[in-house]
Amino acid sequence: MQTINHTPALSSTTADRFLEPLSRFIIREFLHGDASLTPETPLLEWGVIDSMTIIDVIVFISEQLGVRVPDEEIRPDNFATLRALSRMLAALDDAARVRGAA
Description:
Blueprint: H1 12-16, H2 19-30, H3 53-65, H4 82-101
Helix pairs in contact: 2-3
């Protein structure tokens, strides 16, 4: 399987559409509604999410945001920050739209 390239060349607007719902979910589910996150908050490094809670994030992404995260994209760099996660989702969503249009 091929890994999706999620370069910063993606429109920030494209990736930004995922920031708010991801932030709300992570704050509600893992920080009990008592925190704020920036797009650059180090989610893994600070223990906001870990290898177990990433599964919950992936389920949320699939069920609520409609983006399927393939196994090869479940890597620490893609879950390091909200910005990295949003870029990955934008790249996956864009790739799915291109495949659907073909």
